[in-house]
């Protein structure tokens, strides 16, 4: 062999060894104290592990949170577990502690508005837009939040009660049709259409007619529904799924959504200019913009109206038009999704928990009268006394709070850029500081809100009674301010323990908590109050109630009917019932 060939033959193994050493150092080096790393391979990182966990579960429709829980529990449930999906994605730190999650979400010297949102949100850009309040940060986000706060103030939301009841009445008519048909149907579509109708009124002060026949619906509704369907995960984790054809379809539908929204924006902008230049009572014509010096309390407070008032210009530039479009997209997405998921799971749990349904109906009888019907309840909620009646629905609020705990619609992902030195302190007296910059920080609400160390051995059970005396979901409410003496005595008798505020976070916490949480709670209370008295829901397929040989439902030891097979969430951007919540709707016999 020639000398050059000999040298090459000797160099190849050395080069391979060098490359292997570099890859090993890149994959396994740089471990940080205080966090637990999930098993990973040199070539596939944590990807193979996730695939194996899905295979062990035997159902690729499961939401990834179920897989993360299996992993975290197999490692002894540490507060932080790191998964490595490089080079395709980031290293992801799964947060399994409410105390750590709180440090990530709260304001700090390094991040005054909390840790920035993760770039992994970019896959949602067709739904929310580049300028979305959900993904921007810093002063830009602060300005947007300040602009829209008046539209979600409790006093303003109370004025929307008649509009919410009006949309709920259409929902009731659709449920009536289902009850008369005797055929099962997916509640998902009905609930989504209802909440889309409501958020259309809140964001743009228009009727989208989402609950009517398809031909009568706004084109915006049809485009948006099809766009959401492109995010359905058909199998396995969504982390590595890519479909060029679906991406192309998504772009086309995004264009349709934005075209419809721009038409609405331009029409309302033109109307606001016309109104601003109209003669006043003295016959004087003004030429001020839409944010003129009229009484601020009299100004429209829809999201679109607030956006146009902030723009304060006679001509909408392309940038303002796109920013406003992205704003509306964001509120349409977040505003309809959470509440529709909450409603589906609430109806399901009430259908298999007879004592909870009885307690809910008892509360409705107490607040609205023993002879009340869904119609009289709707009328009462639309009346001037509606806001006061809503506040009295404490058990209804407990149902909402428990449903959001057990079935959180979504979590939050943040990322502190490398080099920022962002640290958290681990829970426990001896917990040290851990640097987490560079990681995607996944505050996993499904894990945090089912923590047995916080919620006890029944953490996986749906128990609304755990929130008696603490059913308020408002961000700034102190529990002691809303408890009466009997409720405080009941808590003391139970050991004086209350759930830490940071352990319930379906709307997240800190400065970037969900601006629409008061609206979601208001909607849900109205809808449950109007429907719970009128209907009985019966699950079909997965989650159906088990019956004995006489055909009677089998009541389990914990006061819930046993089911033939479990229900679970799948992923379609957020966590949703995998079967669309297939239900048979029946009229409540006492209301027949």
TrEMBL record:
State a single Pfam family of this protein: p450
Mind listing the UniProt keywords for this protein, alphabetically? Heme, Iron, Metal-binding
Tell me the segments the record calls region Disordered.
Answer: 275-302
The yes or no answer to whether the keyword Heme is present is yes
Q: Which SUPFAM superfamilies match?
A: Cytochrome P450 (SSF48264)
Which cofactor is recorded for it?
heme
InterPro entries noted in UniProt: Cyt_P450, Cyt_P450_E_grp-I, Cyt_P450_sf, Cytochrome_P450_monoxygenase
Q: Where does heme bind?
A: 514
Q: What is this protein called?
A: Cytochrome P450
What species is this protein from?
A: Macrophomina phaseolina (strain MS6)
What taxonomic ancestry is recorded?
Eukaryota, Fungi, Dikarya, Ascomycota, Pezizomycotina
